[in-house]
Design brief:
Layout: E1 23-27, H1 46-54, E2 60-66, E3 87-90, E4 93-96, E5 122-126, H2 149-155, E6 160-166, H3 168-181, E7 185-194, H4 202-213, E8 216-218, H5 220-230
Parallel strand pairs: 1-2, 1-6, 2-5, 6-7, 7-8
Antiparallel strand pairs: 3-4
Length: 231
């Protein structure tokens, strides 16, 4: 496992979990976040096999998908004189500027090759408003607009979710924290995530923040072992 995402940081803070795990949220496993993509996350391609391996463990699998208009304000190319990694204000909130990525209808916005997308029961797009970004799978960053994921989970009576995907320190963290704020029991499948690491240690700090909020951290092996033991 890459050093920027050590399961060991969870340590004794992991807690026991039940066998039943109704919904898996797959966060932004898209081409532009894989090695060679416009906003490549180191080792991001390694998350695909983990996602596929655990899907059978869940009753439902939903996905989030970055789906930006080309004129999105979070793109450094659309901010005169700015470069990726710089920070501005967008939509009234602090915004990191990114390379152009996951533009609607482009190959970079498509889901990763080999990902079992046929298992997805719903896909929730985000980042569609050019005036504000959306890290969370639930809300835009200004929290004024929702993607529909929260309403969907409420409608089906969901109480527990697990989260994996890209990237640990941005969209995965925001999605997991919002799920927790909405009153859901949340588990992070740590080996199914990788971090952008704009600053060294961002991935570990994100995991620590999620743990502190009450999110449980598990590995895919733990989930699968529990399932095997039950049959």
């Amino acid at each position: 496992m890459p050093g920027n995402l050590s399961a060991g940081s969870a340590g004794a803070a992991r807690v026991a979990y039940d066998l039943a795990m109704p919904t898996l949220i797959v966060v932004d496993l898209q081409n532009d976040f894989l090695p060679g993509g416009a906003l490549a996350v180191p080792h991001g391609d390694e998350t695909v096999a983990v996602a596929n391996a655990v899907m059978d463990r869940f009753t439902r699998v939903v996905a989030t998908q970055d789906w930006h208009p080309r004129a999105h304000g979070s793109f450094a190319a659309n901010q005169s004189g700015r470069a990726p990694g710089e920070v501005i204000e967008l939509g009234g909130v602090v915004q990191v500027l990114w390379p152009v990525h996951c533009v609607q209808g482009t190959p970079g916005a498509e889901f990763a090759p080999g990902l079992q997308v046929e298992r997805f029961t719903r896909v929730f797009v985000k980042g569609t408003d050019p005036g504000v970004d959306s890290y969370s799978g639930f809300f835009d960053n200004d929290r004024r607009s929702a993607t529909g994921l929260g309403d969907h989970l409420l409608e089906i009576g969901e109480t527990e979710v697990a989260v994996l995907g890209l990237a640990t320190d941005y969209c995965v963290k925001a999605t997991a924290l919002d799920a927790h704020r909405l009153g859901l029991r949340v588990r992070l499948i740590v080996d199914g995530c990788r971090a952008v690491e704009l600053q060294p240690g961002d991935g570990e700090r994100a995991i620590a923040e999620m743990l502190a909020a009450g999110i449980e951290v598990v590995t895919s092996a733990e989930l699968l072992a529990e399932r095997s033991a039950s049959v």
